[in-house]
Structures are given as C-alpha cells and as structure tokens.
C-alpha cells in the first residue's frame, strides 16, 4: 500500500510485516529537496510506527554533504531511534536496511550518516538487493552463508571512453557489509589524502617520522629513544606537527595513518 508519493520519494507500507519501504524514484537536485523528502519520511514513520524499514537507493545519485549528514542524524534518525518501535535482531542490528544503488559513492555517503560520529544510535544493515533485505528481515539471510567460503575476487574489465579504469568486484552476498565497508574505507582515506596532502607535505622528514611513531602508539620517551634525540626535541617536533596539521589532540593523528 502506497502511503506517500512525493516528487522524488515513494513510500509503501506492508501492514502484515510492519514494514515501511522507502524508494527513491529519482535523485533530489539539492539539499533542500532531499531534506524535505526526509521530513515527509519522518512524519509517516512517526504515524505508522513500523518495526522495519527498507531504503531502496537504486535511483539515488545525490551526494550527501557533511552538514546534511549531521542534520539527518539529528533530525530524522535520532527521533525514530528514540521512539523505540524499530525492532533489533539477535546480532544487534536495528531492522533498518539500505539496499545499494547504481551510484556507489552516493551510497557510501548515506552510510556516513550512521558512522562513528552519529548520535542517533542506529546500527542499520547494508545489503546488495531487495531480496537480500527481505530475507534478512525475515531471519532467513544467514542460511545462504553456510558452506560457502570463497574469497573476494577483483577483476580488471577495461578502460572506458573517458580513460577511467573499470574493475569488477565480486564477493559473496552475505559478506556485503564487509565488502562495502572496505570500499568506504578506501574512499574516505582517498578523500582525506586529497584534502590534507598540502598540510602533510610541509612537515619536515623528522616531523613525519615523529608523526608516524605517534600514530603507532609510542610515547614521547620511546620516540626520543628511537630517534636518538632528547625528549625536548620530540616535544618541539610534536608541537610543530600539531600546528602544521591544524590538529589539537592525539587522536586526530590517527587520521594520517593512510599516509604511511
């Protein structure tokens, strides 16, 4: 049964399963349109109170920026999670499933709404097909993993007309979460490097060495011993690293792990 048919978003409700299915018919052109459709989704969820939600992202190509991710986390996901009507399965996942679309980068950005910075508390599932999503919600998905232990396979396909390399990425469907998180890590690290390479490049050789050891968890004393310099020198290197990278605490150093 259709409960909402907006410009970009279609929402159906399966009463027998207490399941809401939200389908992006097409991509919203901007943040305003995207947020407007999410507000409609929130109103319907609060009215119907489903125990399960499926998001079908096949036609979504909208890249969610950081400000909109934070807005969606605070104003859409958080109220739904706090209401408490979404079921949780035995593995600790909330019964909210996102099904991948054609635009993988858009999909990865959607995942970013529920990353470690999220305040909503949601732990959704990410799957490859609507069939997988339904099977998982019905508690039948894990049976497909029995007896299968094939490794990830990546195959070079071709170079397209724009000079871009095309690969085929094959993994068992029950391992989809792990595969997509691997791609998300690569994507996030690539973006971080592009946005911070200029800062990193101005570090001296010794400052880079200090940073590398900090990232590995060594203390100032241990670093001074490894580099055969005084603790005072290490403190100086460390302060300059902080200034040049514009960071304020040790945990921020860990983001630079991808440079090593």
Topology:
Blueprint: E1 2-5, E2 9-14, E3 19-24, H1 31-48, E4 52-56, H2 66-83, E5 96-99, H3 104-111, E6 125-127, H4 130-137, E7 153-159, E8 165-170, H5 176-201, H6 205-215, H7 220-227, H8 231-245
Parallel strand pairs: 3-4, 4-5, 5-6
Antiparallel strand pairs: 1-2, 2-3, 7-8
Helix pairs in contact: 1-2, 6-8, 7-8
Q: How far apart are the first and last residues' alpha carbons, in Å?
A: 53 Å
Give the number of domains: 3
CATH level 3 topology of the largest domain: Transcription Regulator spoIIAA
What would you give as the CATH superfamily of the largest domain? STAS domain
Describe the protein:
The chain contains eight helices and eight strands. It has three domains: 2-140, STAS domain (Transcription Regulator spoIIAA, 2-Layer Sandwich), CATH 3.30.750; 151-201, no CATH class; 202-259, Orthogonal Bundle (Arc Repressor Mutant, subunit A). Strand 1 (2-5) and strand 2 form a beta hairpin. It has helices spanning 31-48, 66-83, 104-111, 130-137, 176-201, 205-215, 220-227, 231-245; strands spanning 2-5, 9-14, 19-24, 52-56, 96-99, 125-127, 153-159, 165-170. The protein is α/β, with parallel strands linked by helices. Helix 1 (31-48) packs parallel to helix 2, helix 6 crosses helix 8 (231-245) and helix 7 crosses helix 8 (231-245). The protein is elongated, with a radius of gyration of 22 Å. Helices cover 43% and strands 16% of the residues. Strands 1-2-3-4-5-6 form a six-stranded mixed β-sheet, with helices on both faces. Strands 7-8 form a two-stranded antiparallel ribbon. The termini are far apart.
